[in-house]
Design brief:
Length: 104
């Protein structure tokens, strides 16, 4: 995903998903807009504020991706320790998905 900060007057339909269908959305934006993978995330009065939040968004995304990757690696390791019968039972018990919620 790509995070971009742009002045609202410079955002085109190509830059922002849905802008063509909802041109009125531009009226609600402040001067500087954060686009997260071409989707409006938030807007700010100053470029400095927008860039600060965009950097925080990117860092938060990297942390989440790292945690998800680490959890997948841990699960793979644990799954290798199970017998086929245990894996099958776990799959049935969980519906094939283990969701992890981490309080921060």
């Amino acid at each position: 995903m790509v995070v971009v900060v742009k002045k609202k007057s410079e955002i085109t339909e190509k830059d922002c998903i849905g802008l063509k269908d909802r041109p009125d959305i531009r009226e609600r934006w402040l001067e500087w807009v954060i686009l997260d993978d071409r989707i409006p995330f938030d807007s700010f009065e100053t470029e400095e504020e927008a860039k600060k939040v965009a950097a925080l968004l990117e860092k938060a995304r990297r942390v989440v991706e790292h945690v998800e990757h680490s959890a997948e690696q841990c699960a793979d390791t644990e799954m290798q320790l199970l017998t086929e019968e245990e894996r099958q039972f776990l799959k049935e018990y969980t519906g094939g998905t283990i969701k992890i919620e981490i309080e921060i």
